[in-house]
Amino acid sequence: METKSTNYKQTINFTPELITRLNELLTHYPADKKKSALLPVLHEVQDAHDNWLSVELQEKVAEFLELKPIEVFEVVTFYTMYNQKPVGKYMFEFCSTSCCMLRGSDDLIDYTCVKLGIQPGQTTPDGMFSVAAVQCLGACGYAPMMQIGDYYHEHLTPQKIDQIIEDCKAGKIIIHDK
Amino acid sequence: MGKKILLDKINIPGIKTYQVYRDNGGYAAVEKALTMDPDAITEEVKTSGLRGRGGAGFPTGLKWSFLDKKSGKPRHLVCNADESEPGTFKDRYLMEHIPHLLIEGMIVSSFALGANSSYIYIRGEYMWVFKILERAIKEAYEAGWLGKNIKGSGYNLDLYVHCGAGAYICGEETALLESLEGKRGNPRMKPPFPAVSGLWGNPTVVNNVESIASVPWIVLNSGEEYAKIGNGRSTGTKLISASGHCRKPGVYEIELGLTVDEFMNSDEYLGGMMDGRPLKAIVPGGSSVPILPQHLIFKTAEGTDRLMTYESLADGGFATGSALGSGGFIVYNDTACIVRNTWNFARFYAHESCGQCSPCREGTGWLEKVLHRIEIGLGREEDIELLWSIQSKIEGNTICPLGDAAAWPVAAAIRHFRDEFEYHIRFPEKIKNRNHFVDEPFEKVKHMLQKQSI
């Protein structure tokens, strides 16, 4: 069966720095339990490849960890943080669960989508922004909020959203802090 | 001012760093523990009455005593930092602000259990907290509190932080172990329990962040002293994460036994309602526990003050009580729509079901669909009974407690707020304009639902 990601091209680049980091991760587990490193390895590989994992990239991970490709596919499709198709450079993941809803997350998602001209789950044509409504992010007391990369943006208002979009365009928002 | 044992140092500038933590008494519990008999530490934890702070409330010392120490296999301590229950964000606060307290607790607890390699499994979304923990662990290694022959004791411990990737089910201890082994987070059948066959088939204890972080204080001050704090079988302190329509949402450490009234209304804690609007309901222990309507929040069914304890919050069973759970305290004012909130919870559980058991896989999705159509004004007269029937067939019929967690909020909402469901069904025109957060235009959704038989 053809998967969605085969519709998109992705350049696979296991740099020496990435391989060093992956090998360091492997030391966290017994030598005969390499598979345990799969989730952290996928995070690292995804971060190094524009925040998504093509089927070919998943196969490369399988090869690195000496696993069958299916063992990687079944993990990638189970966990929500692995993207199986390209996403925007700045992925706005809004928490839409109860506590954020009580504090107005629905309206804020609508506001952001209208401003960017996309629906939840879509990416702007320039590839800059994606918007997604996700389940609880554990920031209930600081609602409404969203995650961009490794960081949370909390107590959001339309004005703060405007500023964040401007800051993204100016390259001021940190996605990953290596 | 209530007693603080977890957050007492939280406001010290730089407490996140090793040196400041050490200068303020940090790692003294490890120093003491290394001179003790490991079994004596377990006895202290038993004496303390500490109960698992992740939600289930199982006695921590008792859990430790189940660990199979005779198998000859390596043993592990795994910290469950996969905090994902809506309303709950306390572990994040603790790890983010005072990471060395958790690390100290991991060392003392691992020593008590005879574990030489331990893991902190943190939810993947908390990536910046993951990095804080990694830095703190590195500092602890450099200072000689981790690694080989810790402080000349002959005890070796390696500690790693491992990140998940977005799956609420991995908060269930056996699903967490599956995930830590690099697999989908499908809960395992029990028995065998992790204490006998856990991580890689080895004897394993899985404890919540807050439980482990409480251990250093118990070791330093004795289990007996810990048991003096609190109320009855609810000993010690508890982190409560408050959200929703209260004036001061946030994380608070309370002595168990505080009245709900004081927690809700005193300035030391929530400070009453946001904008002064009337209180309608609370969920006291995270999304999975039953909602309490206004008339049952401050008083139990018997008319006594309701306390922030495991027992008092559960007073009368789920007909008139709820549960302390994870301490995720969600406050609703009179503008909150209970139907909408229940649908939102149901959507969460339907999304997070691992799909392994039929009652959960099919039932949670069914609950979500029926609640959705009621919420958007397409409910049918028989829907309330249908919801009741579905939830009753999920509860108790699944491998793990996610099914129960999905069923209880629905049962409680119907039990206490049946009139709101009836209003939605009988007066759909009153609510149609509230069609938020439906990806498709309302008419299209209506058409789709009319074609379905759900």
From TrEMBL, chain A:
Keywords: 2Fe-2S, Iron, Iron-sulfur, Metal-binding. The keyword Thylakoid does not apply. The keyword Iron applies. It holds the Pfam family 2Fe-2S_thioredx. Its cofactor is [2Fe-2S] cluster. InterPro entries: NuoE-like, NuoE_dom, NuoE_N, Thioredoxin-like_sf. It comes from the Bacteria. Gene3D superfamilies: Glutaredoxin, NADH-quinone oxidoreductase subunit E. Belongs to the complex I 24 kDa subunit family. This is NAD(P)H-dependent oxidoreductase subunit E. It comes from Flavobacterium agricola. The lineage of its organism: Bacteria, Pseudomonadati, Bacteroidota, Flavobacteriia, Flavobacteriales.
TrEMBL record, chain B:
This is NADH-quinone oxidoreductase subunit F. It catalyses: a quinone + NADH + 5 H(+)(in) = a quinol + NAD(+) + 4 H(+)(out). GO terms for molecular function: oxidoreductase activity. Belongs to the complex I 51 kDa subunit family. Keywords: 4Fe-4S, Flavoprotein, FMN, Iron, Iron-sulfur, Metal-binding, NAD, Oxidoreductase, Quinone, Translocase. Residues 339-384 form the NADH-ubiquinone oxidoreductase 51kDa subunit iron-sulphur binding domain. Its cofactor is FMN; [4Fe-4S] cluster. NCBIfam families: nuoF_fam, PRK13596.1. It comes from Flavobacterium agricola. Its EC number is 7.1.1.-. InterPro entries: ComplexI_51kDa_subunit (IPR050837), NADH-UbQ_OxRdtase_51kDa_CS (IPR001949), NADH-UbQ_OxRdtase_suF (IPR011537), Nuo51_FMN-bd (IPR011538), Nuo51_FMN-bd_sf (IPR037225), Nuop51_4Fe4S-bd (IPR019575), Nuop51_4Fe4S-bd_sf (IPR037207). NDH-1 shuttles electrons from NADH, via FMN and iron-sulfur (Fe-S) centers, to quinones in the respiratory chain. The lineage of its organism: Bacteria, Pseudomonadati, Bacteroidota, Flavobacteriia, Flavobacteriales. SUPFAM superfamilies: Nqo1 FMN-binding domain-like (SSF142019), Nqo1 middle domain-like (SSF142984), Nqo1C-terminal domain-like (SSF140490). Pfam families: Complex1_51K, NADH_4Fe-4S.
